[in-house]
Amino acid sequence: MCAVIIVTTNEVPGYRIDAVLGEVMGMTVRSANIGANFVASFRSIGGGEVTEYTKLVYESRQEVMHRMVQEAQRRGGNAVVGMRFDTGDIAQSFSEVCAYGTAVVVSPIPAGQPGATAQSAHQAQTSPPAPQAPGGHGYPQDAAPDQPWS
After folding, report:
1. What's the whole-model pTM score?
2. Domain 5-131 of CATH type 3.30.110.70
3. Chunked mean pLDDT (size 10), the chain, 150 residues
């Protein structure tokens, strides 16, 4: 599959939103292992960054982003707009990390058209149009209600 564009804005500059596929998210609940907790407790005495927890947060964010992208691709999207992270605590030992946004299908605006950017103009020249399913636009909402969309 091709790369998915992820932006925190509600639109992608230089791209036209052709379809909105709905909210997508990725979530994980994590706990640091006992060794990391032990080392971090000593490190917290002196102050400063607790690298064991920083690594855990980075890994968690990467995992939830990956899951969100997989969900967007499963729905037929090639971009996620309005992406956000959310975090929370569960009990005292667990952290929840969630990435969410709206899966969309975008197409690059060619050079010479209003809203085109250098990136979109180049993309419009080099990439074929997105495939469409027969009898519809190729989006999940075009599938029969009792049939899974793939």
Report:
1. 0.73
2. yes
3. 89 96 93 55 62 82 95 97 90 84 96 91 79 45 44
